[in-house]
Amino acid sequence: MVTLTDLRAFPPFEHVPDDQLNWLIDHAEEATYPANHTLNKAGEPINYLRLLLDGTITIVEAGGEPLLEYRAPAILGVLPYSRMTEANLPLITDTPVRTLDLHRDRLRDMTTSCYELTAALVQQMTDRVRNFTQQAQQEEKMASLGRLSAGLAHELNNPVSAIVRNADALKQQMRATPEHFKAIMHLNLTDEQTDTVNEWLFDKLDHKTAPLSLLERSSLEDDLTDWLDDQKVVADGAETADLAVSLAEFRFSEADLDFILDRIGKQNLAGVLLWVNNNLIIEKLVVDIGEASKRMAALVSSIKSYTHMDRGGGKEAVHVGEGIQSTLTLLGHKLRAKNIAVTLNFPPEMPTVQAWPGELNQVWTNLIDNAIDALPEKGGTLTIGSHLERGQFLYTTFTDNGSGIPEAIQRKIFDPFFTTKSVGKGTGLGLDIVQGVIRHHNGSITVHSKPGETTFTVCLPINA
């Protein structure tokens, strides 16, 4: 039998009079359940205020992972004035448990006759909401961090691999330089001819124009190969082709080769062109290493901007466009994996908003990530834009051409734990947290969806 001693073990009941606890014992029912018993399935009504006297009960996520654990003494289920009607997630016993269950029909009588007991339970509801919200937000942030970490690894992999690959190639090319130097030493060039060769080469290196199309480059390589063969620059046809590829890479033409031939003579042509080729290869490797390094620096800058390192934790003037672009950079691997075309429509002088930048980046991450998941493998488009209204509100829209959200569930998508993703692929917390963050900024979020077009609109006050 449940006794006052059992109920006094609950800290919230410390100041509740004995007669009110006895009322609870008289109107509730004691129950026992074995381990691994499902007290409530997802979607089932919750009809009881449940006091856990002995044992452990766990709320389980859609993927089967534990979300919250309750150890005796603990208060679960419906509480006075609570709007809870059904279980969003399964409630399962970890061990044999003993509970005291009060049906929701008795709550009205309790609120009229047991003031202190009601107050204690209402306080418990407030604490539950606060603690659960903090934990849910933390877990969603960790999930977002995991997605961004994977994205950053993907993004860094290509430039890092390029640097390693080109550094090895550069090392091999530098080892071949002495052989080319010996060939140059045997040439009979005047100082004026040497200066001409240097100016001719470095003019091309310093004024490299836009890259050729594949067809244009192939045609140029064929022309250069024919020219080199006519002049018998090198005996090996493979070397001729390699030399033509290098010269075409830097837009050397037959006219350029005629020019240098006239200046240095045919007897010096092979040695000069092989030396030029060596320099062109080194130049390309160095440029590629530089481009990869710039890409890595841009990624580091994006992650620093996203996390707002070296900044305080308060509100500050936030450029919404910069936060969105940083988020797109970190999710770039997912966009490329599905060949999603992204269009940005930001006004040239978009105002800043007073906001918590880290929280806003959480919003952009969830909205963009959800759009990516909703888009098809091919032909997906994502359009993001902002505009100012009445000089006070910044509206930012995220529009994708996915299958859309059925009208019947549009009103539920911001509910905690509601998700349209398959089991294990979503917690259902993303949009709930998005809405909470935007409300924290005194803003609003709406959704309009039909097949082929879904738009989330975020409204933020400029000076919240």
Q: Would you kindly provide a written description of the structure presented here, covering whatever features stand out?
A:
A five-stranded mixed β-sheet has the order 10-12-13-15-14, covered by helices on one side. The protein has helices at residues 4-8, 18-27, 107-113, 115-185, 191-206, 214-231, 237-249, 254-264, 266-307, 320-330, 332-337, 357-374, 407-410, 430-440, and strands at residues 29-33, 38-40, 48-54, 56-60, 66-71, 74-77, 91-93, 97-103, 316-318, 341-345, 353-355, 381-389, 393-400, 444-450, 453-461. The protein has three domains: 4-113, Jelly Rolls (Sandwich); 150-299, no CATH class; 312-461, Histidine kinase-like ATPase, C-terminal domain (Heat Shock Protein 90). The chain has 464 residues and is an alpha+beta fold. The protein contains 14 helices and 15 strands. β4 (56-60) and β5 form a beta hairpin. α5 (191-206) packs antiparallel against α8 (254-264), α8 (254-264) packs across α9 and α12 (357-374) runs antiparallel to α14. GO terms for molecular function: phosphorelay sensor kinase activity. Residues 12-128 form the Cyclic nucleotide-binding domain. It catalyses: ATP + protein L-histidine = ADP + protein N-phospho-L-histidine.
Q: Which of globular, elongated, flat, extended, rod-shaped describes the shape?
A: elongated
Which strand-content bin applies to the residues? 15-25%
> Structural class, from secondary structure content?
alpha+beta
Q: For the largest beta sheet, what order do the strands appear in spatially?
A: 10-12-13-15-14
**Euclidean distance between termini CA atoms:** 56 Å
Order of helices and strands: HHEEEEEEEEHHHHHHHEHHEEHEEHHEE
Helix content: 40-55%
Average pLDDT metric: 83
**Rg from alpha-carbon coordinates:** 35 Å
Count of separate structural domains? 3
Count of helical segments?
14
Report the major sheet: 5 strands, mixed
Oligomer: single chain
The strand count comes to 15
Uncertain spans, ≥5 residues at pLDDT below 50?
422-429
Keywords: Phosphoprotein
Catalytic activity: ATP + protein L-histidine = ADP + protein N-phospho-L-histidine
Protein name: histidine kinase
EC number: 2.7.13.3
